[in-house]
Write a structure and sequence with these properties.
four-stranded antiparallel β-sheet; 61% helix; 2 domains; 166 residues; Tetrahydropterin Synthase, Chain A; 20% strand; alpha+beta
């Protein structure tokens, strides 16, 4: 019986050693991986920090977006058929002041955009060039309104987030 107990304990201590050796090997591999990554990325050196600072100084300000909801709905008559446009736009600026001015003057901006959209030809709106023309026109229109109220800089871009022609 004593021999059976001795035999049962021997493999048990060997498997514990294997687990400990395996755990140490995994820790060494992880440490080597982290060390290698830091070495190749240059962590701790002064030069990358200076490069990072130069990149941050030339980086433009964070973009701020504002959705111009509710959607714009405009009707057109082509031939004898009534046609409709439903569009949603989001404006992008680099300053909160420009977005705040857009929100403040939204009734005027909405009215001008609806007038602008009704002036467009329905068939032209179906092309990519027509959509791009609308996008650029909205940027110019909004910036024109904002410049009247001495808000500078204005919006940088208008994004079409929904565009349905029927």
């Amino acid at each position: 019986m004593a021999e059976n107990e001795a035999e049962n304990e021997a493999p048990d201590t060997g498997s514990k050693k294997n687990i400990i050796v395996l755990a140490v090997a995994v820790l060494i591999a992880v440490a080597a991986s982290v060390g290698g990554t830091m070495f190749f990325l240059g962590a701790g050196s002064e030069e990358p920090a200076e490069v990072g600072e130069a990149v941050n100084s030339t980086k433009p300000a964070t973009a701020v977006y504002h959705s111009m909801r509710p959607p714009y709905i405009v009707n057109y008559v082509t031939g004898s058929k009534p046609r409709y446009l439903q569009a949603e736009f989001t404006v992008m600026a680099r300053s909160e002041a420009a977005i705040d001015a857009v929100i403040l003057h939204m009734p005027l901006i909405r009215s001008e955009i609806i007038s602008y959209l009704t002036e467009q030809k329905f068939l032209e709106l179906q092309t990519q060039e027509g959509k791009e023309k609308i996008r650029r026109g909205i940027v110019e229109l909004v910036n024109e309104i904002l410049s009247k109220y001495e808000v500078s800089p204005g919006i940088e871009s208008a994004l079409i987030t929904n565009f349905v022609l029927q």
